[in-house]
Write a structure and sequence with these properties.
With 87 residues, the chain is mainly beta. The chain has helices at residues 33-38, 64-67; strands at residues 8-12, 24-29, 41-48, 59-62, 73-84. The protein is built from two helices and five strands.
Length: 87
């Protein structure tokens, strides 16, 4: 499967430590397309539907209709991690 920067996929982000976002949730691919093509891992940012969270400069709002999400959501750019492609 081809993965491109800016794509949104569901990934299982468990296990977690402390305040990390976990569970099966949408994630935004933020790794460049060269890395996406050749690397066994992908750099992602967690997405949450809890739009009432304290708004930080690292949050980006996503409209559900525009991005194919179930609800309006926030990309949490303070919640970036590298995951295996199989997640």
């Amino acid at each position: 499967m081809r993965i491109y920067k800016g794509d949104i996929f569901y990934a299982d982000l468990t296990p977690v430590v402390g305040c990390e976002q976990g569970g099966i949730r949408p994630v935004l691919i933020i790794q460049n397309d060269i890395g996406n093509r050749y690397s066994p891992t992908v750099i992602v940012a967690a997405i949450t539907s809890r739009t009432e969270k304290n708004h930080l400069p690292t949050h980006i709002q996503l409209c559900s209709q525009q991005y194919g999400l179930r609800q309006n959501s926030l990309v949490l750019l303070e919640q970036v991690r590298t995951i295996d492609r199989s997640r």
